[in-house]
Structure formats: structure tokens, C-alpha cells
Amino acid sequence: MLTNHFYHEIIRKTIVSFGTLFNNIEVQHKDRSGKTVSVVKVPISYGPQQKFLARVTQGRDYQGDSTVGTTLTLPRMSFEVMGMNYDSTRKVSTMQSFKSVNKNTKKMVKSFMPVPYNINMSLSILAKLNEDAIQILEQILPYFQPAFNLTIDLVDVIGEKRDMPITLEGIQMEDNYEDDFLQRRALVYTLSFVCKTYLFGPINNSSDGLIEKVQADYFTGTENRKTATRQQRYTAVPIAVKDYTQDDAARTNEVIQPNVTSFEVNNATPFSTKTYIQIDDEKMLIRGISGNRITVRRGEFGSDIVAHDINIPINSINAQDDAKVVERVIEFGDDFGFGEQVTDFASDGTIYSETQGRDSDL
Predict the structure, then answer these.
(1) Which has the closest alpha carbon to 18: 89, 105, 87, 120?
(2) 125 plus 240 within the same structural domain
(3) What is the number of domains present in the chain?
(4) Which of 5, 105, 198, 289 has CA atoms 20 to 30 A from the CA of 172?
């Protein structure tokens, strides 16, 4: 066996998405004055055009029983898969992989890069009148120059969305009206497309964790690292930009209008300057504290500045919320910031050891 069972429904999603592109096409008929007298929404189904042509031309007798079946009316459309082939022009390294987060388990997962495949699709336009057929055709062709990009959620569990170019390769026209006047006429326009999609392999749990800390040491001089003088260290760790713990540290003692930057709270003891708070959905930076009055900078982290009522909970954005980011229990898609720290050295004669996880002597 190659591997355990997996199924991302990518081929199915590609076929369904292709058919959905053409499910809102209409044909209008007008009288001599130009007034619209009828509007027909053109139905579309998956299947070979021969199947639908048989039902159009044979009607109730196509099943050998005149009491069974119905005659299809025109116009209508059908589409089907004509074949698949590997696209070597979009090939990437077979050993290259990427990591993501499982939306359900919130755990790190790993997958190899997807394999590029082209799916050949055929769209058939069946019509009794040439006017109907070219109405349908003209509602399709302007969107393909010659490709139309369609975004598809290929692997939902990791939120892997990709643009799939759908390229129009050619158009063929057929008129099968060759018999007597009793034979029903059917005009068939066949449009050939190529859908450039990607197929993903199994999504496996990764033994590696999320990057929780970045550290860089700066050295002076042009010598190698062991003899150069270390001058500075830059460290960055993820921090929360919203409240997760709902600690309800204090309450507002007055109505806060959008233009207000200083207001009373019932207890300012839990707060300190240069820290963040959240009232409703707005985040604020505390710039000063005097008794139970705090001065803030409004609309932090891109939040909207709005009015707040009296006795509204004030939540601190603190180390407990930062821990939620590190523990990976934040909501999927949430943004987060970075806490930065710069440390100066005076040629301390040590170097950071990755194996020991600490500074060590040269």
C-alpha cells in the first residue's frame, strides 16, 4: 500500500466548480418591438452530450416504453471530464514540503508540495435555434482571455486555497439537422477547457512545533563568529493583540465617547502604563494612570474607535493572553503581534549554543 486512506475531494471540487461557473445563464426572446416576451434559465447537467441528444431526438421512446421518460427541451448545457494529464511545466521539488495548522485540531501538520494536474473538460451547448446558442456563447466567451481564474478551497482542513486557471482551448460547432422535417434539430457548440489544478497527498501531523521565539545575534568586524565581537541580540516572541481570558479587571465609570482619551474606571489597580486593555472590541494602550483615571491611546491593533457605555468590562491584554497564542488555542485566522527586545553586549566573550540552548564560552 502506498499510504493510509485520504481523500480531499479535489477532483470533485474542480468538476463542481467548473459546472457552477455556467449555472446562471439565461436566454431571452423578444418580439418585433424589442419587448422581452420570455426568459429561460438554461439548465446544466453533468454527462455526455450524446445522452442528452438521445433524449432530445427520441423523446419518450428512448427507453422502449412510450409511457416512461420525458422529452428534454432545448436550450440546455452539459459538461463532462474528457481526461487528465500531469503538467510538468508547474512541477516543484518532489521532496519540498510545507507546514500549516489543522483548523479542527489546532495542531501543526505537514504535507509535501502538491502535484500539478490538468483536467480536460468539455462544455456542450445544445440549442434548437442558432440565436439561442449564440446568446449562450456570447455570455461565456468574454470571460476567457483565454483563461479565467477560479479560487477553490482545495484542502479545507488546512485552509489551502489556490487560484485555478480555466483555459478555453477551442470551440467546435455541429448541426445534426440532416433528416426530414419530422426529425428534431439540435445545434451543438462544444467548448474545450483545461483546468489547471493541484492534487495534495496525505496531511500528516508534524513533530515540529510552531516557531515561538526568534533570536538573532549581531557581531561586529569581518572576522569569523568565534573571534568577532558580539554587540547586540534581537529577540521576538508572539504576543496577543486581543483579549482571550476575559479577566474583567475593571469597569468603566462613565460613558466613553470616540473623542475621549481619558476616563474614570472603578478600580485602576490592576493596570499599569504601556500595557493594553480591551473594552468591547476596541483595544487601547494605557499611557498614564492617576488614581482611578486612566489616559489611553485609542484604536490600537487596527480596532475601530467607538463609544462605550458605563459599567462595561475592561479586560487586560497581558501575559495570560500571550500564553494563549503560544499554546495555539487562539481562534484560527486570528492575528497576533510581536514582543521585541534588544540586548546590548560589551564583548562578553560568549556565543549562543543551539545544542545547549544557552550562551557558552568560545
Answers:
(1) 120
(2) no
(3) 2
(4) 198
Residues 355, 266: Cα–Cα separation, whole Å? 50
Q: Are 38 and 75 in contact (CB under 8 A)?
A: no
Integer Cα distance of 55 and 59 in angstroms: 5
**φ, ψ for residue 50 (rounded to 5)?**
-60, -35
Whether 54 and 184 share a structural domain: yes
| Residues 143 and 255 reside in one and the same domain | no
Q: Does the pTM exceed 0.90?
A: no
Alpha-carbon span 171 to 161, nearest angstrom:
30
CB 233, CB 139: distance < 8 Å? no
Q: In a 3-state reduction of DSSP, which class is residue 304?
A: coil
- Considering the domain architecture, whether residues 196 and 275 belong to the same structural domain is answered as no
Q: What is the pLDDT along the chain (362 residues), one digit of tens a residue?
A: 566 788 999 999 999 999 999 999 999 998 889 898 999 999 999 988 877 777 766 654 444 555 555 567 788 899 999 999 999 999 888 788 887 877 777 777 888 889 999 999 999 998 888 899 999 999 999 999 989 999 999 998 888 889 999 999 999 988 765 555 555 567 889 999 999 999 998 888 776 656 677 888 777 666 665 666 667 788 887 778 888 888 899 999 999 999 999 999 999 999 999 889 999 999 999 999 999 999 999 998 888 999 999 999 999 988 887 776 655 545 545 556 666 666 766 555 566 665 666 666 55
Domain boundary among 205, 233, 254: 205
**Which of 226, 234, 291 minimizes the C-alpha distance to 262?**
291
How do beta strands 44-46 and 76-86 pair?
A: parallel
Same domain, residue pair 193 and 240: no
- State which residues form the domain around 309: 214-353
